[in-house]
Amino acid sequence: MSKKVTMQQIADYLGVSKFVVSKALSGKGGVSEATQERVIQAASQLGYFSQKNAYVKTMKLEQLPKTPAAGKQSVLVLMPNIRFQTKESLYWGRILDGIAARLEEGGYGMVIVSEQSVDHFLHFLNPNGILGLIGVGEISTPLLLEVHRIGLPMVLVDHEDMLIPSDTVFTNNYESMYRLTKHLIGKGHAQLCFVGDIHYSRSFKDRFLGFRSALEEHMEEASRFSISGDYYLSVEGFEHEQFQEPIKQWAVKRIKAKTLPTALLCANDMIGISAVKALQELGIKVPDEVSVTGYDNIDDSFRMSPALTTVHVPKEALGKRAVDRLIARIESKQEPMEKLLVAGELLYRESTGQASAAFIGS
What we know:
Rossmann fold, single chain, repressor, 362 residues, six-stranded parallel beta sheet, transcription cis-regulatory region binding, transcription regulation, LacI/GalR-like_sensor, HTH_LacI
C-alpha cells in the first residue's frame, strides 16, 4: 500500500518550505502566482490531489442543510466570460440550454456564475444548498483548485485540467475529425491543411490529432502524401474578422509558391467560415478549387454560401450529460473519474467536393 503524499514531500521535491506549499494550496495568497503554479503542478505529479480525502476541508456535503432557503437544491454553473464563453454564444449558449433543461427536469435550481478571479469566486462557494458545480469551457487552474479544495463535486464540459482530477464531458473530437479527414482523402485530396490553434483548447488539440492520424495512415500506401510543417496553420482569435485576414495572407503566399492545399480542415466553424471568405476574396472557388470544412455546426455554418461541411456537436446533449454525470458523482463519490465522449455527426454540405484535377497555383 502506497504512503500518503504530504505537503512536506511536495516541499522537499520543490526545494521550498512546507509553509510555502501550504500557502499555495490554501488559495489564500501569500505566494506569487508562479510559485502557486509550481506547487500545484508538483502536487499533481506526486499524486497529492488523487489520494482519498486529500486537500479537502473537513466540511462534508452530507452535513449541509438538505433544504436551502430557496426551497430546492441548486447546481453552480461556472461559465467564465472569456473567449466569448457566454450564454449568448451560438456554441456555449446551447450547452447551457442543455444544462438548464436537465436540471429543470430533475427539480434542481441553477446559479450561473461568470467569474475569473479566485477571490471573487470564493463568494459563491458557500455550499449551503449547492449540490455541485458544472464548469462550461475553459476555467483557470486556481479556480478549479478552489472547488477541489472545498470538496464540491464537479464536472467539466469541453475542458479538462491535467492538474485537477474531475469528471469531464466532450464530443468525440479525435474520431470525428479523423473520419472527416478520411472522407476528404477518399475524395482525392492529397494536400490538406489543419487550420486552428492547437493550444487554444483540448478539443482543438484532439481534432488536430485526429486529422494528423488520418494523414499518417496514408503515408506508406500513398507516396503523394507529405507530412511536414505545411499541413498546419495556426490562427488565433474569436471572431470571423480575426481569422480571415491571416488566412488570406497565408493563402497568397501559398498561391505564389504553388503549394496551396486542396482542402482546409478548420478547428471550428468560425475559422471555417473565415477561410471560405478569405479564399473567395482571392477569387478561389469553394469547393471547385479548394474544399473547406468546419466543426461544431453553429447556425451560421448552414446559412452561408456555400453551406459549410462540418461536424455536428450535440451541444444540448453535452449539457444534459454533464448534469447526469454530476448527479451520479454525488451519489457515488468514490467511483473513478470518467471522461464521457458524446458522438458527433458528420454533415456533408456544399463546401467540400472532389479534389481538383489541377493543383491550385500550378
